[in-house]
Design brief:
The chain contains 12 helices and 8 strands. The chain has helices spanning 3-19, 27-36, 57-67, 74-77, 79-92, 95-107, 220-233, 245-254, 262-293, 300-323, 346-360, 367-378, and strands at residues 112-115, 131-135, 138-147, 155-161, 172-178, 184-189, 198-209, 213-214. β6 and β7 form a beta hairpin. The two termini are 41 Å apart. Residues 333-348 have low confidence and may be disordered.
Length: 392
């Protein structure tokens, strides 16, 4: 960004903080004002929560607002919907959909989820069987989904098959579905962490208005890949060296009484290896963010996602060795409907990360899928053998 662009964004932040001091402003009112000021998604067009500036500026905006005590937005508390979902609505939605959804998703007045996967269509998303049949200005939907739309979700991005005669990728359409609509049954899926962040959602004769279709009919594959690509590259942010889970591990090490025995020196060496891995991932993800800011981020997002997944999982699985007997303890919020009720200390958070680590390799596309994408689209290797290869 040049100096003039930075000046425009800085002035907008100055006005927002002056007119709506975070300490004296209701959280929702502040977030509404942030959206209206174009500081929700600075790279979005004016009128839709943005200023038409570079995506690179968002991290600086978020840092300034957080330092001033501003409340977290939906991009933090409901990242899947207010981050990737909002970007897909901007890219594929009509003006009415943008006006209806973008602001409340950002302010978290509207909670969203994602219904792509199915019990029989996880990694092979194009094989999904949920059907949507058109009846005039409405679609009748039947099927079974597994996704991030829990009982608290108001809406969800739904991918359904609308042309069973078309090739697997060509006959899909995406919708924004009301999770309170008749025929929607949500069954929470409890995880090892005690949380139910995912749900099995049964759809029985659910009616969705054609006005809630996102993108063109039978073009849902393109919409979903746009959303998943953003999920893998992550939100616009500037991570500092040593941030994230590795900072928690370092804090646990620094709190140890024994830092000099032979066993402790082995742990320290392993901790340094994990720190180096975390720094390499941070630099890789910065590169992906630069490509995204320049509009060139595609399959490269899978590099950052795979690297973050594998290194984060290795750190989490090693955590019990660092924690010792404390690694078997989970926080008091275990099993609560909201998951972690509050930060419970470095050691306990690291223990929970260990329990949650298998899911890291699945969310946002499995590690195996990311390797296929990297091999085929970046390295130019022959595609993975598939019974579905051909016209689909």
């Amino acid at each position: 960004m040049d100096a003039q662009d930075l000046s425009i964004v800085d002035e907008a932040v100055d006005r927002l903080l002056a007119e709506h001091p975070p300490d004296d402003t209701d959280a929702v009112a502040f977030l509404r004002a942030q959206f209206d000021a174009g500081l929700a998604y600075v790279w979005f067009p004016v009128g839709f929560g943005g200023l038409g500036e570079s995506i690179e500026a968002q991290a600086a905006v978020d840092e300034r607002l957080a330092a001033a005590g501003a409340p977290p937005s939906g991009r933090v508390t409901n990242a899947l919907a207010a981050g990737q979902g909002a970007a897909s609505i901007l890219a594929y939605g009509n003006d009415e959909q943008k006006q209806r959804y973008l602001r409340p998703l950002f302010t978290a007045e509207l909670i969203g989820g994602q219904l792509y996967s199915e019990p029989g269509a996880g990694s092979d998303l194009a094989s999904l069987s949920t059907r949507a049949e058109r009846h005039g200005d409405e679609w009748l939907v039947n099927g079974l989904k597994v996704g991030s739309a829990g009982q608290e979700a108001d809406v969800a991005m739904l991918l359904a098959r609308t042309d069973p005669q078309a090739s697997r990728h060509a006959g899909l359409t995406q919708f924004i579905m009301d999770m309170r609509a008749p025929g929607v049954e949500v069954r929470p899926v409890r995880q090892m962490t005690g949380r139910a962040a995912y749900s099995e959602v049964a759809l029985t004769d659910v009616l969705i208005a054609d006005a809630d279709r996102l993108g063109e009919v039978n073009q849902g594959w393109s919409v979903s890949q746009h959303t998943l690509g953003l999920e893998r590259s992550g939100p616009p942010r500037r991570r500092s060296r040593g941030d994230g889970a590795i900072a928690t591990a370092v804090a646990v090490w620094q709190a140890r009484l024994d830092q000099s025995s032979p066993a402790a020196r082995v742990l320290r060496a392993e901790l340094l290896r994990h720190w180096v891995d975390a720094e390499v991932v941070r630099l890789l993800q910065l590169r992906v963010a630069e490509l995204r800011a320049a509009g060139r981020s595609g399959a490269e997002a899978s590099l950052g996602k795979l690297a973050g997944s594998t290194t984060g999982r290795r750190l989490a699985e090693w955590a019990p060795a660092l924690l010792g007997s404390g690694g078997s303890l989970l926080e008091d919020g275990y099993g609560s409907s909201g998951g972690l009720r509050a930060p419970c200390g470095a050691a306990r958070s690291l223990a929970m990360a260990c329990v949650a680590s298998p899911g890291v390799a699945i969310a946002g596309g499995t590690d195996q899928i990311q390797r296929n994408i990297i091999g085929e689209r970046i390295l130019g290797l022959p595609p993975e053998p598939s019974v579905h290869r051909g016209p689909g």
